[in-house]
Amino acid sequence: MTKMNRQTVVTEALDLLDEVGLETVSTRRLAKRLGVEQPSLYYHFKTKKALLGAMAEAAMAPHADAPLPSPGDDWREWFLENSRSFRRTLLMRRDGARLHAGSTPTGELDRIRHKMAFLVASGVPERHAQMAMLASSRYTVGCVLEEQAEADPPPNSEDLPDDVPVLDHEEAFEAGLALILGGLDQHTAASGPASVAPSPA
């Protein structure tokens, strides 16, 4: 029997996710995988929602551990790489985007504040920075949702015409991300020097 603690439960739950997909993840399956009775899981997680939240947080670790921006960094390059890192992390797990969608990033709040402060200090108006970060986050999740859904084709998908174009998901993602950045850059330039916040002491 696997020695069970909170971290073991989350690790095994993520491995189960990769094997069977989010729809089929259940506490019953997880308990069987761990070699314990189902009620034993409730010692660590009172509800399945709490377990899914912990899984979502753990799955985001590669992105959450990425270096934070420094004052001398180019904010445009950082904005692009931040979204790319988010996408790569969502793609690491089967149904990673579905697992993440709707989760509350409680452990990420300090990092989010740091990122926002960096953008504002770089001259991006605060409101535009907030909306651009929200837009890029939701855009990235939506792109990965579509990409991962395509990885699990629906029934009768073999009946689709042969001439349906194959989408290059990374190319499409980069194109849309460039448009978001372009809009943010345009709004920032239009705001002028008055939008530049003082650098942190």
UniProtKB/TrEMBL annotation:
GO BP terms: negative regulation of DNA-templated transcription; response to antibiotic
Signal peptide location: none
Keyword terms, alphabetized: DNA-binding, Repressor, Transcription, Transcription regulation
Annotated DNA-binding residue span(s): 26-45
UniProt GO MF annotations: DNA-binding transcription factor activity; transcription cis-regulatory region binding
Membrane-traversing stretches: none
Highest taxon above the source species: Bacteria
UniProt-listed PROSITE patterns: HTH_TETR_1 (PS01081), HTH_TETR_2 (PS50977)
Domain (HTH tetR-type): residue spans on this chain: 3-63
Descriptive protein name: TetR family transcriptional regulator
Species the sequence originates in: Streptomyces spectabilis
